[in-house]
Amino acid sequence: MLNRRKQIANACVGMLCLIVSSCAVLLLLAIVVFMLQESWPVWVSQGFSGIAFSTNWNPLGDPPLTGIGTMIISTLWVAMGGLFIAAPIGFCAAIFLAEFAPPRLADIIRPVLNILTGIPSVVYGFLGAAVLVSFFEVNFNMASGESLFCASLILTVMVLPYIVATSEAALRAVPREYRQTALALGVSKPYLTLKVLVPLAKKGLVGALILAFGRAAGETMAVLMVAGNVLIMPNSWFSKGEPLSALIALELGSAEVGSAHYQGLFAAGLVLLIFVMAINLGLAFIRRDKKTG
Fold it and tell me: Per residue in 100-124, pLDDT tens?
């Protein structure tokens, strides 16, 4: 009788989890379908290449043009720039926390990193506009200190905790036997870390980079406040630009519902959504491969 009740309880819990998971998948599909439906007229009239690869953004013109190639390049500049700075810092911090930090010091650093992930992005953007932008204006005699580089610096701070936490978890997941065997052979701790643990945890480290890149590419408010928001093709890291997320946030409020402007912004949002989904699917693939490998 007792086993029968346990089986019924397990079945109920399993069914509940299945329903919740199915709702989450359906919600995601509903968002994709809704955005595709709202932007469908511009996809039909201009085609994928006319939107994703064109740099002509003039949705109020005749004919309306909704090319978002400039914004895609700005998004890549900002996200990859932030990752370029954050990756070495994050990996070094993760190695320190996993292998070298005294336990008491690590217990202090980890909660601080968790707090950094909880700070609203508008606070990061405000600090960037008040400190970084002013710094470049004063010290480099610039008319405006806003640039993609400033946005990348802000994103560096925002994605750093994700890289550190994920990389540290990957290093700690390496089986203890590898450490014991290497130390028994007389190798030094730095050699053990760099030549044994890091190669074994490389898939987890790559996963940390992908996770951080997805977070940086989808960030809106902090980037909007320091990137400059100019619809020109950026030719360097220090140019101004307007990433996709900033474009949508700035113009959606002024777009007439059902207009080409409105549809073009939904097309931009759909491209950004698919871009972030592809990154997360890549991360899931790496984790799955790591478990089965």
Answer: 999 899 899 989 988 888 888 889 9
Q: Which alpha helices (DSSP H) does the chain contain, by range?
A: 2-52, 69-95, 103-118, 121-127, 133-139, 148-172, 176-184, 189-191, 198-200, 202-218, 221-226, 244-251, 260-292
Q: Tell me the pTM.
A: 0.85
Exposed e or buried b per residue across 69-96, where buried means at least 16 C-beta atoms within 10 angstroms of its C-beta = bbbbbbbbbbbebbbebbbeebbebbbb
The answer to whether the CB of 66 falls within 8 A of the CB of 259 is no
Distance (Å, whole) CA 114 – CA 124: 15
63 preceded by a cis bond (ω within 30 of 0)? yes
Greatest Cα pair distance in the chain: 81
